[in-house]
Amino acid sequence: xxxxxxxxxxxRERLATETEDALQCVAxxxxxxxxxxxxxxxxxxxxxxxxxxxxxxYAAWCASTEGIARPLGRKTFSDIVGRRYPRKKSDGWRxxxxxxxxxxx
Length: 105
Prior knowledge:
This protein is α+β, with helices and mostly antiparallel strands. It has one domain. It is built from four helices and four strands. Strands 1, 2, 3 and 4 form a four-stranded antiparallel β-sheet that branches. β3 and β4 form a beta hairpin. α1 (6-19) crosses α2.
């Protein structure tokens, strides 16, 4: 099967962000500056956020977001976010390419 055209991949990703609570949460955190989405090769694994930490942030986000009855289970959350930000084992499981921004004085 030939690869999808870039425009279709971009549209698929846009729709996923709009329809998946987990990706909406991540996008909002990136937009607010509490997370940075970086090319995976540009950030060391130890700087990437842990799956458990991000899941806790997501669960809190769900509790404060109208229209979300309950958060996804941890594994489902990890699978959905992991499609966009692959997981890597480094002192626990982490999402590659997602990091807490470094504060510079």
